[in-house]
Amino acid sequence: MDIMNFLDTGSTDLLDVTNMVKWLLSSLGHFMIFKKFGVRPIYAFFPVVREYNVSVCAGKEKEGRTFAVINAVEVLLAIPYYLLKDSNSSFFQLIEIAILAAILADVLYQIRIYSGLCQAFGRSKRWLWGWFFVDEWIAIIWGFGESFQPQKQVEKVDADAGVKVSGVNAQVTDSGLTVNISERTTIDFFRKMVLLKDIHLSIPEGHMVLLLGGSGAGKTTFVNAVTGYEKADASIMLKEQDLYRDYKKMKYDVGFVPQQDLMRGNDTVLRTLADAATLRMPSGVSIFARRKRVRDVLEEFGLAAISSSLVEKLSGGQRKRLSIAMEFISDPSLFILDEPDSGLDGVVARGLFEKLRSIADSGKIVIVITHTPDRVIDLFDDVIVLAKDASRTGRLAYYGPVKEAYEFFGKDSMEDILLSINQTDEGGEGRGDEFVEKYADRMLEADRKAG
Fold first, then answer.
1. How many structural domains are present in the chain?
2. Strands 394-401 and 241-242
3. What is the pLDDT of residues 160-210, one digit of tens each?
4. Distance between alpha carbon 102 and the CA centroid of its chain, in Å?
């Protein structure tokens, strides 16, 4: 609420001192308010960060993101404003208009957020007038007054919220993929978020693996970590080569097919695949070898007969095959696909998965995400099951043969397994923690016997 006051240089030293005192009082009051809510008190002394955390205390986290951005814009606009305020340039007038717009938006969000703060303290919304006109004194009263206590603490996300961690690294295999992810973290609006944790597995070559998990369980994050697109605190070894350390050399050995293709509709199938070969194959490959590879892949994916057809004229199944062929052109050892059967009927999808099975049988590692696994589950060797634990972190709930997965979860289908680990607010049984700990115990027991 006091950013502009804090930045105001004014025309006298007295005004400067007054604004500084107001800012200091407001910061001290917010310091104590944050302490009461269980938020890091030091955030009270940082503009923008303070506004976001006030919103968190008020139970208005989503609004707080916009509120913080508005305050950041005000701070950025204040700099040229005070540098140019003695000029009458048109640029200065534009800045004034922008500042007025930001202040108006700021006021609207203040009403929402500080109304929420009043509710969080169990106080009447009449206190809003105080927050608008003498916010530094209201902050002091609410922060230091013993009778002003929040009705609940800010919910804390604890990455170690009682869910067991095995910490057992998978042994590196000389002919497959070894994944040892300690954790994958990110900063989301001043908060550290643990997206993945304690994921250790080893996939032999020639295996086709289902990647199963509910929304937010970390499937995409896991794939990005394995491919090196978003590095984690991890060791990713493909045939004893470090994917992170030797990424430039290893990137041609990893293929990833996203759910949505990026093909141009007015290109032919042949041109599309030829362009993919230029982009995805090492620069040292000769033009003759590249052309031969294009012809071979066209034949392998049943696209040779339609090589002159435009992409926009292809059927859904043909388009999917071309999308897969584009990534397969570099002959990767690790092949990952995100919902390759999306939008396809059962017969066409079955044929596509049978092709992926043949790719795995040729000695490749194939990992597939699909929302309809039960109709093709007989084609998979293993399944990776990711689940959100109590801290909303993606964890490994199971990795192993498909047949053993049914016994492990006590279910008869992959859909039922998914329902068992999904949280109750997602229509599931909310047993994610149970199976994460059960699998961690299995890993620890296996490590104890081996050691």
1. 2
2. unpaired
3. 555 788 889 999 888 899 999 999 998 877 778 899 999 999 999 999 999
4. 30
pTM of the complete model: 0.78
Indicate the residue among 144, 168, 197 that finishes a domain: 144
* Single-letter amino acid, residue 324: I
Q: Are residues 94 and 27 in the same domain?
A: yes
Q: What is the CATH number of the domain that holds 366?
A: 3.40.50.300
Q: From 226, 232, 277, 221, select the one nearest 254 (Cα to Cα).
A: 226
Q: What digits encode the pLDDT tens for the residues 347-383? A: 889 999 999 999 999 999 999 999 899 999 999 999 9
Terminal-to-terminal C-alpha distance of the chain: 60
Contact between 232 and 183 under an 8 Å Cβ cutoff? The reply is yes
Shared-domain flag, residues 352 and 253? yes
Q: Residues with Cβ < 8 Å from 272, sequence gap 6 or more?
A: 263, 264, 311, 322, 326
**Structural domain of 381:** 176-450
Classify 38 as helix, strand or coil: coil
